[in-house]
Amino acid sequence: MQRIEVQPGDTVVKQGGEGDCFYVVGSGEFEVLATQEDKNGAVPRVLQRYTADKLSSFGELALMYNKPLQASVLAVTSGTLWALKREDFRGILMSEFSNLSSLKLLRSVDLLSRLTILQLSHVADSLFEVSFSNGQTIFNKNEGLSALHIIQKGQVRITFDRDLLSSPNVCSLKSDNPNEDDDQQTGKDLSVEKTEGSYFGEWTLLGEQMGSLSAVAVGDVMCAVLTKEKFDSVVGPLTKLSQDDQKIRDYPLDATKDSSKEIDISSLAKVSFTQLEWRTSLYSTDCSEIGLVLVRDSEKILSLKRFSKQKVKKLGKEAQVLKEKDLMKSMSSAVCMPEILCTCADQMHAGILLNTYLVCPLASILHTPLDEQSARFCAASVVTALEDLHENGVLYRGVSPDVLMLNKTGHLQLVDFRFGKKLSSERTFTICGMADSSAPEVIQGKGHGLPADW
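Given the sequence above, the corresponding structure tokens read:
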């Protein structure tokens, strides 16, 4: 971002002009003025004041498309602005996933297969390459292994104690040739050759140390290497991620007590937060979370989407939250949408009570590949959900395994409409959506419509 110093009275942007920058207030005070028609003619009015204390920013629409500015911004005092140009912003977006070869390597590691593309992109930036000559020892039984190695070129022969195969986190030690293990059942030590595109050492990312194994380069070898320290710094400990996912998977099994009872809708039309006992969080965003609640004085488990009022106000997302609520209400009759029972609020949260028992995000069941029948069912569920939305003129822009939720019967439910929009024309220009699955036309900012969801 470019630093811009301003003096009192300086015009930052002018109403009716064209803007191509997004501004963040570093210091000083700025006022937003717009000339509005009045019975006495055109009259300039102060609409808002921006200061650094309020974490103010303006001009975000200029990053998306070229449109005449609706107001002017003037400096009231001397101050500092940080500016990001549209062309730089789009360059950042387009280069975010430029490391496709590294992403493909990381995707091949079973332990990392559940990470999002955005997480893998950050991990890919932490990879470094190491070369080994023919016959060179990569590690021995005394040194041990300290990082994940993905073979980019050549072959690696790994010798290890048969007892290591009992560990659940050494999948890479199984032979690439299924007949090889059968020929080695007589010895204590086993040997396997890992080829280009395969990997070893994934257990190091979990903090585990394995003794009784060594590795030697067969020919010239090039490996992409990832240490646990680098991985933890960009994603967090794998052990914690695994524990969190396990809680999500296990909780519904323990909480299903009489939750299948028929719900008296009328009795839940005016529920307050004091009548709901928060049990567990299933999914969270920057200002909201979706979880399970127990209706007090009953044994009913329902789903609640609650918004943190403090975070909503701090991020200036009041209008977005209201828009999301209205979209959910308008689509509550769709098969993919749970029925909204009521809305409620207290000093800390605003909530939407849903007539469904959500279990987990779709991503939590994708740790291992789905069988063909399950994959077809999930794909068909997404297609059906999008068709329902599109028939009602709603653009979703949120198709991602991390956002799509499953209920206790295994059916897809849409409960996150942050990026949804009721289209009044064929095209919209807002750049938003899930980073993993944004369509090219969304990122390019040239306008997009319902086809962007596909």
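The first strand starts at residue 2 and ends at 6. Try to locate this feature in the token string yourself.
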